[in-house]
Amino acid sequence: MPSLHLNLWKQQLGHVPDSVWEQTDLESLVLADNGLAEISEKIGRLTKLRMLDLGHNQLQRVPESIGQIAGLSEFLYLHDNRLTSLPSSLARLKKLRYLNIGENAFSIFPNPVCELTSLVELRASDNAFTSLPESVGQLSALRELHLRDNKLSSLPDSIGHLHELRQIDLRGNPITSLPASIAHLPRLDKLDLRWVSTLTEPSWFAGLEARGCAIYR
């Protein structure tokens, strides 16, 4: 029986051997911390993957064929690379529950992420986002939204559609206003605003705290 899990973490690969793309029964693949500048479109052959870790590399793009891995459900790590955009095909990953795109070079929030309607946790810290699209309100299963150390001055009103949301991390952003729709998030229990010195506290904070939401300032 071939192994369903391949861990090549920190193997100084420089590039991925073609033999990896031939292991089409793989369910998890770890290629983190290998100095990789690119990933072959052949990754689309690995249609049984549930977990994929491409973090801590030097990637400037994600192959379009990633959209063929429709079963990718557990996690996709893309953090600590040099990404400025994501392929539109990413939107096909409708089962994906965890995505980390932190520590990249994004200045515009990648719209395909807003179509990943099974996402439970989204980590997008340490980029240069100045805004989020209204379409982020489509992430109806989202419980955790991590946006630390970006350049956000506000959030879209549609954030109030995320009724499963428990945590919002906005640390280190130049936030000047927040939509009142946040006050109506029924499950929100943590709003982290540490290292935010630009926000005049809205009156609805009191109501959030009164029902048990911790607001860190």
Characterization of this structure:
The protein has helices spanning 18-21, 205-210, and strands at 5-7, 28-30, 51-53, 75-77, 98-100, 121-123, 144-146, 167-169, 190-192, 214-216. By secondary structure, it is mainly beta. The chain contains two helices and ten strands; from the N terminus they run E-H-E-E-E-E-E-E-E-E-H-E. The chain has one domain (5-216): Alpha-Beta Horseshoe (Leucine-rich repeat, LRR (right-handed beta-alpha superhelix)). Helix 2 links the parallel strand 9 and strand 10 (214-216). The chain has a ten-stranded parallel β-sheet with strand order 1-2-3-4-5-6-7-8-9-10.
**Cα-to-Cα separation, first versus last residue:** 53 Å
CATH second-level architecture? Alpha-Beta Horseshoe
Taking the sheet with the most strands, its summary is:
10 strands, parallel
What class, by secondary structure content? mainly beta
Radius of gyration: 18 Å
**Arithmetic mean pLDDT:** 97
Low-confidence stretches: none
Q: Briefly, what CATH class?
A: Alpha Beta
Our count of helices gives 2
User: Which range best describes the helical content: under 10%, 10-25%, 25-40%, 40-55%, 55-70% or over 70%?
Assistant: under 10%
Apparent shape: elongated
Question: What's the structural domain tally?
Answer: 1
